[in-house]
Write a structure and sequence with these properties.
The structure is a homodimer.
Chain A lengths: L1 E7 L1 H4 L6 H12 L3 E8 L3 H14 L2 E5 L10 H8 L4 E3 L1 H14 L7 H4 L3 E3 L3 E3 L8 E5 L10 E5 L3 H19 L3 E10 L3 H7 L1 H5 L5 E7 L2 E10 L2 H19 L3 E3 L6 H11 L4 E5 L5 H6 L11 E5 L2 H8 L3 H7 L4 H15 L3 E7 L14 E8 L2 E8 L4 H22 L2
Helix pairs in contact in A: 2-7, 3-4, 11-16
Chain lengths: 421, 421
């Protein structure tokens, strides 16, 4: 089954917002086993929208439209879709009720404008999808027998991501899945401590030989994610198909695998390892300036392993807060193996934490020298009194270099926790 | 002149990467005064790509294609474009030389594969654009007189953002600008301390009355940006057209305006204010966990105003590091006005900084109670011994609530610095 995405709205068309919905929906559709050949973006213009929808219906079975379902007269997606399918709009009593309820929950009753009732209009014969997070319902319109787009489907979803994503996840995805003869199931194996090209080389034979399940790599900052996807009649059969591939990846990557769960992040895996070991961690950051502790504290419940963290940007702060010896800073400089080591060890001492990560480097754009170029970062890690320091040369801009340093810090800690096992 | 964007590549089509190039290019094209009605995404498939390019050339004057210029046989953008325009490819000596130079700079000489020379092939008559950051050149192909696409243009740009953006900025934008009878110039007025809807209401009359220059608002986290755009024969005339509008915004928003420079961020404006006042700042973060200091240290040269920062996640750390009185934590709790105040004041004291921002709150998803719901954040700010605390109720998820808290912290500091003037 061929699906196609149309994003409606001037803000996306003119680049005021990045089209993250399209990436989300495309990835989900691919996972559902739909073939995707085209995406398009069109503004709030009736003629161009009609043209775009017609063309999509000609070449695809399912056209997913996002945006343009708001209450203003600029919002035309529903009107144009109904016209293309030759359907009238009528006021749906249940939707009207839900809009009223939504407003009652959020606002005083007086605030509903006449515009809002436009959102209760739905094309005849459409499946109406309730919106838990807004007033515009989702809609599924199917071409009637004997009409131009017989059996073709248009799926209309509100544009705001906090409405679009939950609606797709809970209601549209199961619907699309039901249209497919076989289900598509997938799982994720997330790998760190190894570069993208080496990781791919290690499984090149599996990727070449793939039919069902298939294996696809995705490079992330400091990580590689492998998605295994199987077509099968049910979840159990899919799991049986995927299990040998998961096992093969485990055989090849071993401890490089930090999770086989889609939703687990690297920081979550690290926090979980610390929890299991009843250990606490702290950080000592210079150029990353708090981004590393910020990432650890992304994890809900991080308070069980992290009590405090230190940003020591000046040399004076490194000395006073972390007790980095003055002589080390003078002799080797703030960006040095010795300083990174002293920061990591000092952070453990002053906080009483069992482990620490320290980062000191030259993020750029200025401050580099021939001996210590921009991108040079020392990452120190202490686990139960043992310290390792890694010298990294990143080649990104200030922001990218700091992101890489944060990822590498988490990975180094993970490696040392594994060794200390 | 009507322009249209085509993004080529399976990774974008299937949602493995978000199409940030499209947003960047669309925004830039709009600023250059080009009309944009369509964007599309197509995979590395010859027939579908040809179809998409032909359709775009039929309805637009300039078609900008990104991606598909790599060295592999999947990369087809150049080949298909040449075919559509009825042009042959030939090897461009200068491009071949540049590819060789690029490799010499990056790698040992041995590493060029035969594939790479594919990138030296260019369509006859094309303008070749040098790529400072990669091997694939940019290309501008124009339809010959008497052919199907006479006078239409296809502009081919490499897909990686670090190649696409500098190439567009330095070479494509001036080229496109030269095609236009009048230039398009713009400037930005960035506003904080005021909500989006109120800010828009305050300039509704200016937006309604707009012709040249025009005024458009963009909501950012905690900020509103107003872009003023003028059409004019040269930059000086444009500035004369825009000046009264800028002045009018200054009259209406006054100190809410933190910059009129496109490239200046809120954190940069705050760091600059501190520099001017010869003041230093520190932070004391709980739920934001280092993101606030991380954002301040985004600013190159932040070391002149920030020496250290504190992440005190546990109560014990708040007491020991920031000297928050034990009784306050017991009586009012960690998420309270009193604790935020003590954190802000304590941070100044322990670090000797002239100013501080403290954040303590419940970012979610758990930990909320009826009295202290998820999203409740107290932000304290001390400037030269005077402290203010603000109670905020954010309604996003954990990540969004933390981002809002960081933005609000910076804005509160800015407000107090202005007051202390």
């Amino acid at each position: 089954m061929v699906a196609e995405l149309i994003s409606v709205g001037t803000e996306i068309l003119l680049g005021n917002i990045v089209n993250t919905n399209a990436a989300y929906l495309a990835e989900k559709c691919a996972l559902l086993g739909l073939s995707l050949y085209h995406q398009s973006v069109v503004g709030d213009n009736e003629a161009r929208m009609e043209d775009t929808i017609r063309r999509a219906l000609e070449r695809s079975d399912v056209v997913i439209l996002t945006g343009g379902l708001g209450p203003t007269k600029d919002d035309l997606t529903k009107e144009v879709t109904a016209k293309v399918f030759g359907k009238e709009l009528y006021e749906d009593a249940r939707t009207k009720e839900r809009i009223q309820e939504f407003f009652n929950r959020l606002h005083s009753k007086g605030k509903i404008t006449r515009n809002n009732w436009k959102q209760a209009l739905v094309p005849e014969g459409a499946i109406v999808i309730e919106n838990q997070n807004g007033t515009a319902p989702g809609l599924i319109v199917t071409g009637e027998e004997g009409t131009e787009y017989e059996g073709k489907r248009a799926i209309l979803i509100p544009g705001p991501p906090n409405e679009c994503i939950p609606m797709f996840e809970t209601q549209i995805a199961p619907y699309l899945s039901g249209l497919q003869p076989e289900g598509i199931y997938s799982c994720m194996v997330k790998v760190c401590s190894i570069g993208e090209s080496r990781a791919e080389t290690m499984v090149a034979d599996l990727m070449d030989a793939q039919t069902n399940p298939t294996l696809a790599p995705y490079a992330k900052t400091g990580e590689v994610h492998f998605r295994i996807t199987a077509k099968a009649k049910d979840e159990k059969t899919a799991e049986q198909l995927m299990a040998p591939m998961v096992q093969e990846l485990k055989n090849r990557f071993g401890d490089y695998i930090y999770t086989t769960k889609e939703e687990v992040t690297l920081e979550e895996a690290v926090v979980h390892m610390l929890e299991e070991r009843h250990m606490t961690v702290t950080t000592a950051e210079s150029c990353t300036g708090g981004l590393l502790s910020g990432r650890l504290i992304n994890v809900p419940g991080a308070s069980s392993v992290l009590n405090e963290a230190h940003v020591t940007y000046s040399n004076e702060a490194k000395e006073r807060i972390l007790h980095v010896p003055h002589e080390i800073l003078v002799q080797y400089g703030a960006v040095s193996e010795e300083t990174a080591r002293a920061m990591a060890e000092g952070a453990c001492k002053v906080s009483g934490a069992d482990a620490s990560i320290a980062v000191t480097g030259i993020a750029g754009p200025d401050g580099g020298t021939p001996e210590k170029p921009v991108g040079l970062v020392y990452i120190g890690c202490t686990v139960k009194g043992k310290t390792k320091v890694e010298r990294c040369c990143f080649t990104g801009n200030r922001q990218k270099n700091r992101e890489y340093a944060v990822a590498r810090g988490l990975i180094l800690l993970r490696e040392m926790l594994l060794e200390a096992k």
